[in-house]
Amino acid sequence: MLKGAALGAAAYAAGSSFAGQDLYSAFDEACTANLGVGALPVGAAALVGTYVTSKVLSGRTPEHYIQTPLDESAYQVLGKKKDLTNEDIPQVNQELKQSFASGRTRPVAFRVQQLKQLHKLIKENEEELIKAIQMDLNRPRVEALLYDVLVTLHEVESLIKNTAEWAQPEKRKFSLLTFPSTDTMQAEPYGTTLVIGTWNYPIMLTLIPLAGAIAAGNCCILKPSNVSAYTAKTVANLVQKYMDPYTVSVIGPAMPGDRGCIQALMKEQWDYLFFTGGPTVGKLVYQAAAAFLTPCSLELGGKNAVFVDESADVSLAAKKTVWGRMMNAGQQCIGPDYVMVHKSVENKFVKECVRWLKTCYTEDPQKAKTVGNIVNARHMERLIAVLKDPAGTIVHGGSYKQEEKYIEPTILQCGFQAKAMEEETFGPILIVVGVDSMDQAIKYCNSREKSLSQYIFAGDQKVIDKILQNTSAGGVTVNGTLMHAGHPDLPFGGVGTAGIGAYHGKATFDTFSHLKPVCQKSVWPDMGLLSDPFFLYPPWTGFKETLLRNLMKMV
Q1: 522, 352, 310, 536: which is closest to 437 by C-alpha?
Q2: Rounded distance between C-alpha atoms, residue 353 and residue 324, angstroms
Q3: Which residues are catalytic?
Q4: Which of 16, 122, 337, 413 gets the most CB atoms within 10 Å of its CB?
């Protein structure tokens, strides 16, 4: 890099109106012979060398946010009205904009304080939150604790620990095009953000995006899903108790359903939108956001494929696939949906799936409370239709209790044309399809819309690489399921109809931040020798064109 910098300095020096003929000569020689620092006069080379080797951002950039004192009398809804309705949305939108404009949410200390309050909200009300989830989904306690409480706490703790660092300008590498300058990316909050949560993991998929919005310095209105009605009301009550009302507001639980509230919210202009749900509603939200050119993240879903090659550890593949499928009674967007297994190991894979179902979930999962319920009657009817399709063969399970919204964990063998293959299953039904080769599986996978997740089981690295390089999905776990979504440094999100954008770890902070490039030019007392070269300005000449051409070759 020092050699390139020296050549660049030669270009600058050669063109300066204050440079002597010796510098012009040095430039010509450096460009012609591609020489290094030795082609420059000693002073110029030393100056560039010092600049390149010592230019490091140190310490923390002090905050200079403009803030105005909060005047509570200027707010009609925030901090005053508890149960918000659709009629309040325009006023909430304006008051959140007003709060953000005051600079209230920008200081890092305030952001961290609010994140600590969110952490306190979850920690102090762990049992109440788990109980609400069990009322909505009858989910096993450990599942509710792990995914909705502990994972959410971990993400909030990461933001508390790192927000101050992530909010600092991030230095970018040296470039001759902007030399001499300090080049950074600065994260700034969007402003007023809208987070629309979903029902299957109603704490994790609602509060983690909220935490990201807070960490990035935004105001946020939160719309939890009323499909998980008990949890939505619990979240609303706790947010109002713990969080700053001029930073976070909750709407929805006081009204039945979700559609009307979402439609009313989408009539307003927000600075950023984060939606988690299905592709059908996601498309409508995206269309509404487009009317305002609102940037957004869409965390959707899809029919997630599992590849099981003949080189795989078949028992391990069965164990991990069954576990990933039956989590939350199969109601998760990253769950393994259908398995394309090589026919040479298909029978063994199915037998191992049945064995692991009995081992992990017992002969009577409902009595043992190892599997939760289906969320509502509509989803029950959809899943029962899959079970009744004559094109499929139920190898294990298949029983259900419609009034209790319970479906026994099921293994279903079928072909690619079965009803079970039409859409995302989103239930405790694992579909198994035998294939002649992984090439056939790849071809079928690519004939469908892209999925949110994909899983590969193989002992042959060439097979793994072949599948990875010839298919597309939001994220992949190899020789396992779900794990890529749990790694804090692996951004989680979809591609194509599976979604737009990603979060988790630093990506959660970045998602709710506009990453602003800043090029701060240095002003040197060098009479323009290096810091303001003459050949950047008209009138244009052939000589200046030659200088610019040579400079661009060195960049």
Answers
A1: 310
A2: 12
A3: 299, 333
A4: 337
Neighbours of 440 (CB within 10 A): 16
Q: Collect all residues with Cβ–Cβ distance below 8 Å to 59 and sequence separation of at least 6.
A: none
**Predicted local distance difference test score (pLDDT) of residue 528:** 85
Closest CA to 121 of 210, 61, 50, 183: 210
- Strand, helix or coil for residue 518: strand
Residues 437, 344: Cα–Cα separation, whole Å: 9
Backbone angles phi, psi at 220, to 5 degrees: -150, 135
Q: What is the pLDDT of residues 495-554, one digit of tens each?
A: 999 999 999 999 999 999 999 999 999 999 988 888 999 999 999 999 999 999 998 998
Annotate 72-103 with DSSP letters as a single string. GGG-SSTTT-SS--GGGHHHHHHHHHHHHHTT
> Taking each helix axis from N to C terminus, what angle separates 204-215 and 151-166, rounded to the nearest 10 degrees?
10
Q: What is the pTM of this model?
A: 0.88
By the 8 A CB rule, do 238 and 123 touch? no
The Cα–Cα gap between 15 and 1 comes to 21
The answer to whether 458 and 317 are in contact (CB under 8 A) is no
Ramachandran category for residue 277: left, alpha or beta (phi over 0 → left; psi -120 to 50 → alpha): left
Cite the DSSP H helix spans in 167-219. Answer: 204-215
